[in-house]
Specification:
Arc Repressor Mutant, subunit A; two-stranded antiparallel sheet; 3 helices; 2 strands
Length: 74
């Protein structure tokens, strides 16, 4: 399974409301740079969106991401 597919599946099935890039990389045992690059591709394709902010291990503010399939349409 490709990195993008793994990330999309993780975000779609996450019990949390969303995950940061750092959490995605850790959960999938991926290089953080590779995970971020694949997540950016998913964002450009309209498959994932930011839904808020989280904090990295180093204390920086970062986006929390979720799959579009989990977003309720109003």
């Amino acid at each position: 399974m490709k990195g993008k597919d793994r990330i999309l599946l993780l975000l779609a099935n996450s019990k949390q409301s969303g995950l940061t890039d750092e959490e995605i990389a850790s959960a999938l045992d991926m290089n953080p740079s590779s995970a971020r690059t694949r997540r950016c591709e998913l964002e450009q394709e309209g498959l994932v969106i930011p839904i808020g902010f989280g904090i990295t291990k180093s204390g920086r503010r970062t986006f929390v991401w979720t799959a579009m399939s989990t977003v309720r349409k109003v």
